[in-house]
Specification:
261 residues, alpha+beta, five-stranded mixed sheet, two-stranded antiparallel sheet, 7 strands, 59% helix
């Protein structure tokens, strides 16, 4: 509203000044005697009259333009969101990561991380309880994921039952801890739907996202880790290309295996 008021006053003053200049020129050409005697009064009158007429119309136009702008921004934001869960969609996540790549960052800053999350045996939920129950579960999963990452991080639904989390500056330790928090939260959660209790688990695959890495390369690494999690029995986290921190958490006796999780 303040923006609309500022624009209204600015454009109204411009219009009023133009009206004064035009009035003065007209009287000097056609009625120079009147201009010579009443020039100051005519300028003031033209300025105030034009201002009084222009303010309502310019104000209405400014308000309409601001509302149209807000509506367009709302449409753009809706286009970035998944209609069911309200999370970012795949395109919005990719745009976020590309924009992040253009930011100026310190070389010693912790790396970002990408985590892919796939609900285990989701088709069985739809087959047993119906698609409405499946949608309910997806919304619950979205809330659980978003509630276990930081506000600065980005959560997206990138497929039917597949989600992604882009962690900013998490580093290896932060990425591993976040993945395990999400996995445990989903395992512990109970979803109630029409008197039925539906439990879900998820498989997670992640990869660190170095500053100069491409989206496709990191996504493939996280997707490969997700495949390993599914193949290894589901309801677990796997990471691709992490240092010994992840291997040591899974197997304290393991050493020197930086490419596997």
């Amino acid at each position: 509203m303040h923006t609309a008021l500022r624009k209204t006053l600015l454009w109204s003053l411009i219009i009023a000044v133009v009206a004064v200049v035009a009035t003065q020129a007209m009287y000097e050409v056609f009625m120079p005697d009147i201009m010579a005697e009443y020039g100051t009064q005519l300028r003031i009158f033209a300025f105030l009259l034009t201002l009084a007429i222009s303010v309502p119309f310019v104000g209405l136009f400014s308000v309409v333009m601001l509302r149209m702008r807000a509506f367009n921004l709302q449409l753009k934001e809706m286009a970035r969101r998944d209609g069911l869960t309200g999370l970012l969609n795949r395109t919005a996540l990719q745009d976020t990561i590309r924009n992040r790549a253009n930011e100026i960052r310190h070389e010693d800053e912790e790396e970002d991380a990408l985590i892919l999350i796939d609900i285990d045996h989701f088709k069985a939920i739809n087959d047993t309880h119906g698609h409405a129950a499946g949608d309910h579960v997806l919304r619950m999963v979205a809330v659980s994921i978003a509630g276990n990452v930081f506000e600065r991080d980005h959560v997206a639904r990138i497929g039917g039952e597949e989600f992604a989390v882009y962690l900013l500056g998490a580093g290896a330790t932060g990425a591993v801890n976040a993945a395990e928090r999400i996995r445990a939260a989903l395992e512990d959660n109970k979803t109630y739907y029409e008197g039925n209790i539906i439990r879900v688990t998820a498989s997670l695959g992640g990869a660190l996202f170095p500053q100069k890495a491409s989206y496709n390369t990191i996504f493939q690494g996280a997707d490969f880790a997700l495949y390993r999690a599914k193949r290894s029995g589901r309801n677990q986290c796997e990471f691709n290309g992490l240092p010994s921190i992840w291997q040591s958490q899974k197997n304290p006796e393991a050493v020197d295996d930086s490419d596997a999780a």
